[in-house]
Amino acid sequence: VLYLLCLTIVTACFTLKPNLLIEEYACLQFTDVGSAFSQVSLQFDSYSDGLFYHICGGTIIDSFHILTAAHCILSMDAHLYRAVVGEHNLYEYDGSEEFLPVERIVVHPGWNGDLAKGNDIAILRLASPVYDNGYVAIANLPYPDQTLPHGFTCYITGWGLMDFGGSIPAILQESPINVVEHSVCSQPEWWGSIALKTMVCAGGDGIISGCQGDSGGPLNCFTDGAWRVHGVVSYGPSGRCNQVKKPTVFTRVSSFQDWMYSVRPSPLSHVSKTVTTFLLLSFLLFCLLGYFRLIADSISPLHSQIKLKCFQICCV
């Protein structure tokens, strides 16, 4: 019997498994700035003592929001999480990091804790925005319902385990990984019926795979002239992570575009609020100026009464 394995660093969830993401970033260099620089280390404070540790990956999808896997959410208490962006070495301060507290957690309503049922996706709202310090970038998203052809080469990134029974690596890792189309991945000797169309399979060659600690991280693919985050690391096989015909399975981002936009305010909404606030403040300022002019005016009582009426109409 083959059991699913969530790829989160939580000892209660699994026994430790290997990972063959063996190529290192050199100072977070990647094929394109918009892919590697959008990587996030999602960290958790399990004892509320201010000590955070890496549990999952994530992706910056706008200045206030992080995309990750639903199974990475161990508690709905947002204050127990922080997102570290611009990270390279988990165990050293590089000077490029930003440590951002989480303000709100939104898990997909279809997530029920069963990896085989899908909907393994969540969005974190940050308490403060990501600052463009030259080491971070917002990821591009795929087009709605966009799929990838069989054998298409993407890149998996993260701080997942590299050795059987080992620990997470200090340095952010990356490796090319080939897409396995749904018609293949859903065959009985592969993942069968639990490989849903809302998922992306990649790997399965027995060499490259995601592993514990990679959960929630991106599957970056160069499509339509840009690097785009096409997947969110969800699960792999129990036992060795890099098994033949058991590829790493990702939540397909293009299948959840409508939901993602529904939980993230449109950029235009911020503009609308700003304009409304400006108009309201301008109106109040106009009323105040009229009031002070009325007080300072020493003209006839009749004229003052007319101005008072105008002021009452304006401000009431």
UniProtKB/TrEMBL annotation:
The keyword Cell cycle does not apply. One of its GO terms (biological process) is proteolysis. Keywords: Disulfide bond, Hydrolase, Membrane, Protease, Serine protease, Signal, Transmembrane, Transmembrane helix. The chain crosses the membrane at residues 275-296. One of its GO terms (cellular component) is extracellular space. The keyword Disulfide bond applies. It comes from the Eukaryota. GO terms for molecular function: serine-type endopeptidase activity. It holds the Pfam family Trypsin. Residues 1-15 form the signal peptide. CDD domains: Tryp_SPc (cd00190). Residues 39-265 form the Peptidase S1 domain. Belongs to the peptidase S1 family. CLIP subfamily. This is Peptidase S1 domain-containing protein. It comes from Sphaeramia orbicularis (orbiculate cardinalfish). The lineage of its organism: Eukaryota, Metazoa, Chordata, Craniata, Vertebrata. The gene is LOC115411704.
